[in-house]
């Protein structure tokens, strides 16, 4: 598994420098803080922030796992797959895999979301309805390399339910293939 310390991060307050200090004033509940109101919502309500993909791949992939040798989980996963297709037809819902595929060590199906509104509707729904199944939520970023894909599946990923270790060797093989292609095209 990759380490969070392997990556660089933008400073969280970039663009918010030299503002007045925030107040410690509390709301009526006595616990939450009063925030400065400026009359506009964050742009993140309307569009995923950079570097998330806003194209055909969608901003997030959600992989919903089940143990293919467990008939109870298989039946639940099939029913959940059908329910998602019926309730969320605007989302991209992939094939119901009956075996491990790619870095995913057990059977799964995948759902893509394209907007913050879809994410905001689907993820709370999935939290309640995923039953005994685990789900991996990972971003799709604008840079399409094996290294970035691995980071999206690991360091940037979020889990619902039990975390299932991924087969990261797949990304190593993808990086080797990318390097081979670069060398091949570099010699032409």
Question: What are the SSEs and their pairings?
Answer:
Layout: E1 60-65, H1 71-87, E2 92-93, E3 108-113, H2 116-129, E4 134-139, H3 146-153, E5 158-160, H4 169-186
Antiparallel strand pairs: 1-3, 1-4, 2-3, 4-5
How would you describe the overall organization of this protein?
The chain has 188 residues and is α+β, with helices and mostly antiparallel strands. 30% of the residues lie in helices and 12% in strands. It is built from 4 helices and 5 strands; from the N terminus they run βαββαβαβα. It has helices at 71-87, 116-129, 146-153, 169-186, and strands at 60-65, 92-93, 108-113, 134-139, 158-160. Strands 2-3-1-4-5 form a 5-stranded antiparallel sheet, covered by helices on one side. Helix 3 runs antiparallel to helix 4. The protein starts with 59 loop residues before the first strand and ends with a helix. It comes from Penicillium citrinum. InterPro entries: DOPA-like_sf, DOPA_dioxygen.
